[in-house]
Amino acid sequence: IQNTLGDCGSDCCELLGGPGVIAHNYVIIDDTSGYGLTSDLGSDITISDNVIDVVAGGSLGQAAIRTWTGTGRHIIANNIVTRTGVIVARGLEINGNNYIVTGNIFYNCDAFTIAGGSGIIADNIFYDGTITFNPTYDPATPIIFRDNTLRGTATVVLTAGIVEMYEACSDLFTNVLATSANYIVNAQNLVNGAVALTGTQPTYPRGLDCTITEVGGNVTGYTMTVVGINASGETITDVFTFGGDGLTFSSDNAFDHVTSVTLADVVDAGNATFVVGIDARLGLKNVIYETSDVWKIIKNGTKQTVAGAQVDVDYDIYDMSVITLAATDDFEIWYRSNLNIIN
Questions:
Q1: Which InterPro entries does this chain map to (predicted)?
Q2: Contacts for 118 with CB less than 8 Å, ≥ 6 apart
Q3: What is the number of other CB atoms lying within 10 angstroms of the CB of residue 127?
Q4: Of 116-125, 157-166, 328-337, which one has max mean pLDDT?
Q5: Most CB contacts within 10 A, which of 45, 105, 134, 252?
């Protein structure tokens, strides 16, 4: 407890038995070492509130934090592992069973190996590195992996056992509205200022289409800002410009409702008008990260073919234009939402 540790060629600190605590230590690695902080054959061990700093010229060829096979009941919490040096082969290596890993920051580690079962890994930040789950010690016991932030190139590989890292979701859309070119804004003049929302709000989150019609001249400039709410109740904004979008364009977001449409920088040689309508894209309530996250769609009681090309992971949308969408159709979209934040 409360030591400054350095290179030792093998393990900087290892408990050969338990119960025990490794806490509040600063470990600086500026040469070649094997492991940082580890438990050997000990169970009932806490490794917490340590900083493992692999600086220039330093390397950890094995792992920064490790538990052994056949051990159990470990808590690994509130540690920082950071590297500006040569390598951290594994930021975390869990071989024991029954553990909690929480509140840690792993920066610039090459990999993470989770081979023990019956554990909770939550509320950590992983910068880069592949996280591999292979619970060979007791694959019948689940691992809960949730509420972590995966930054940079951090990825997850599931090879065996049961790992809970997704929430099963289904969104129901009943008696949907048909697509409409002018459902929200109908034939308003293209002039600077706030635009009257002359139409009706969508019943479910929908993608928007906009068309500008030139009348007696050419439109050469505008900035249109659309503000509204998405399926999660969050405020969203789409901004369109003449240079980027032309006279016909669609929103990135799906709008549950539109709160305002504002025009600025309009350059119009005539009396152009414009409309805003709804298209066949439906917005989902929860975040999706992969096209494979959407796995089943029921339309009017019949199972449909799910196409990855119709899944928009940037804006959590499924485009029904291929399946087709008409007035009074009912849809149920089944998908999974990762319990971790990936960016």
A1: Pectin_lyase_fold/virulence (IPR011050)
A2: 97, 98, 99, 138, 141, 142, 143
A3: 19
A4: 328-337
A5: 45
Instruction: For residue 242, report the phi and psi dihedrals to the nearest 5 degrees.
Output: -65, -45
Spans of all domains in the chain: 4-164, 166-343
N-term to C-term CA, the chain: 35
d(CA 96, CA 23): 19
Least confident of 48-52, 109-113, 235-239: 109-113
Predicted TM-score (pTM) above 0.85? no
Structure tokens of 214? 């030139």
| Lookup: tokens for 96 | 């024991």
Three-state SS sequence of the chain = CCCEECCCCCEEEEECCCCEEEECCEEEECCEEEEEEEECCCCCEEEECCEEEECCCCEEEEEEEEECCCCEEEEEECCEEEECCCEECCCEEECCEEEEEECCEEECCCEEEECCCCEEEECCEEECCEEEECCCCCCCCCEEEECCEEECCCEEEECCCCEECEEEEEEEECCCCCCEEEEEEEEEECCCEECCCCCCCCCCCEEEEEEEECCCCCEEEEEEEEEEECCCCCEEEEEEEHHHHCCEEEEEEEECEEEEEEEEEEEECCCCEEEEEEEEEEECCCCCCCHHHEEEEEECCEECCCCHHHEECCCCEEECCCCCCCCCCCEEEEEEEECCEEC
